[in-house]
Amino acid sequence: GAVVSQHPSRVICKSGTSVKIECRSLDFQATTMFWYRQFPKQSLMLMATSNEGSKATYEQGVEKDKFLINHASLTLSTLTVTSAHPEDSSFYICSANVIDEQFFGPGTRLTVL
Amino acid sequence: KQEVTQIPAALSVPEGENLVLNCSFTDSAIYNLQWFRQDPGKGLTSLLLIQSSQREQTSGRLNASLDKSSGRSTLYIAASQPGDSATYLCAVRPFVRGYALNFGKGTSLLVTP
Q1: For A62-77, what is the mean pLDDT?
Q2: Is A96 in contact with A103 (CB distance < 8 Å)?
Q3: Which among B108, B112, B102, B107 is positioned nearest to B33, based on CA atoms?
Q4: Which stretches in chain B have pLDDT values below 70?
Q5: pLDDT tens profile B33-49
Q6: I need a labelling partner for B59 at 20 to 30 A (CA). Which of A11, A21, A78, B70 fits?
């Protein structure tokens, strides 16, 4: 199957700082990538759809100014959590489609102190 | 809005048992359905993909069925092993291509030696 990587796998930061998470498609090109968030014991919830060369589409209730998404190339999308607060602590995971199947990255565990 | 429900939420079985995980969805207008496995703190591994026109898919000891009209899918695991212990997630993709997946909350499976 296709491989999606994420970096970093784990990050701990102080409240008020910004954190950037990278999502890369390693062996295929992805014009669209998806960013999900997963809280403990909960399922994955879509945050936004990242589109190469254009603005991201955010789900209802997700602040676009807080969660900045950039999809500058066909293999890289970045999610920046700006002015992070403890309630932003979560597991962030990205994915991309290859034809009809969706492949996920290993996820990034964000802890905001 | 598509709602995906997985039953049971948790399951503990002795090694060697055959088991069935259930997934139901409210909107039958789906493009496909995917079953994933998630280990603690890790990303998602795609297990099986069933297109809306298909009834079932098999991979090794795993068999997934789809009854689109009734909004149901089952994942059958034969001869369970301790290594099968993980959370199993069901996700449906809306009929319109390019859209992200709608996930259930998952079934947490523990297979005891």
Answers
A1: 93
A2: yes
A3: B102
A4: 97-98
A5: 999 999 988 889 999 99
A6: B70
Segments of chain A assigned E as strands: 4-7, 10-13, 19-25, 32-38, 44-51, 57-58, 67-73, 76-81, 90-98, 101-104, 108-112
Q: Is the minimum CB–CB distance between A32 and chain B shorter than 8 Å?
A: yes
Q: Which residue has the tokens 């909350």?
A: B105
Between CA B21 and CA B64 the distance in angstroms is 9
The token duo for A74 is: 């066909």
In whole angstroms, give the CA distance from residue B93 to residue B13. Answer: 30
Strand partners, A78: A22, A70
- Residues of B whose CB is below 8 A from A102: 34, 46, 91, 93, 100-101
The whole-chain average pLDDT of chain A stands at 93
Residue among B34, B43, B101 whose CB faces A106 most closely = B43
Q: Give me the helices (H) in chain A, please.
A: none
B21 forms bridges with which residues in the sheet?
A: B75
Query: Out of B32, B42, B105, whose CB is closest to A43?
Result: B105
pLDDT tens per residue across span A36-54: 999 988 889 999 999 888 8
Query: What's A28's DSSP letter?
Result: S
